[in-house]
Amino acid sequence: MIIHLKQGLSGEAIATMARDVEGIHVYSSDGVDLLVTTSKMQEVPAAIQDHVDSSYPMDSDIQLASKNYRTKTWEININGTRIGGDTRNSVVIGGPCSVESEEQITQSAELMKSLSITTLRAGCYKPRTSPYSFQGMGKEGLMLLVKMREQYGLNIITEVKDSSHVQDVIEHADIVQIGAKAMYDHSILRACGKARKPVLLKRGFGTTLQEFVQAAEFILSGGNEQVILCERGIRTFENKTRFTLDLCGVAFMKEYTNLPIILDPSHAMGYRYGVPDLARACLAMDIDGLLIETHPNPAVAKSDASQQLNHEEFKAMFESLKPIAGAVNRNLI
Asked: pTM for the complete prediction?
């Protein structure tokens, strides 16, 4: 249940009520104090009724992210790059899987700038499956991304692997990415809840939609309403592609959640030949953005070489998105 409290209550009084109902106190951007309890609670407890302005019983613990609570999709503003709400903008986030060198990330930044794409992606802390593969450049890579932002005016997004560097990423990135392997790390989720900075949360490859959106609830209940959901494929019985992109799940999230949705066809497919077609199919679903990997020379990429488009392929793919964006009344940014 989501409970809107009356104005004028002291912090101490709200904290006491939160303890009494075993709920979480959330201060919303609308200036309203909320108490969010388990969805099992369907009626306002008598002890706090005098302090309640309105209440919203929920049928599951998808609550703050539910369209039963807020029908309109949240608008996210990333340094003037706006998605969600009434914007009709679809952000294209491009760049390599990993920062590998200044030359490589500079070439990637120049490509984004030449196409008027606003947001550059690249990993600095890499959660690899094998301990013997490239683990990323760490803080050095993060500072190279900062340099690209300063030189080219791009927003930067990079991934948090674990809690050891979450504050560095929060401090320096414009969008904090929580990857599929870190989606259940509550220390990361709670840190991002306090950050008041846009967060892109990726769905774990073995995660149900309920579990996925409840992970977003950890961030939302921390007071950070700037959460973007990212579908990147789930593991099924199929082994000819890396994962299976769950467009049915995307339809569910559009219908039942109030958060912007971005799709990642690169990780879903795992092979570059299928990424452009998947990207076009994704955009046709009238979503808020795409996350697509591109590398100056994928043959020498240190991570996920098989799924990254080269720059010419990326340009061709981007041009092919424009008529689809027009057909669904979207602006590519």
From this structure: 0.95
Would 46 be classed as within a structural domain?
Answer: yes
Task: Please state the domain count of the chain.
Answer: 2
Residues linked to residue 119 through DSSP beta bridges, in sequence order: 93, 155
**Do residue 177 and residue 205 come from a single domain?**
yes
What is the domain range of residue 87?
Answer: 75-332
- Of residues 164, 193, 180, the one with CA closest to residue 127: 180
In-domain check, residue 64: no
For residues 135 and 98, what is the distance between their CA atoms, to the nearest angstrom?
9
Phi, psi of 42, rounded to the nearest 5 degrees: -115, -10
* CA–CA dist 263, 247 (Å, integer): 9
pLDDT tens for residues 223-254?
999 999 999 999 999 999 999 999 999 999 99
Whichever domain contains 328, its CATH number is 3.20.20.70
Measured in degrees and rounded to the nearest 5, phi and psi for residue 63 equal -125, -70
Residues 6+ apart with CB under 8 A from 77: none
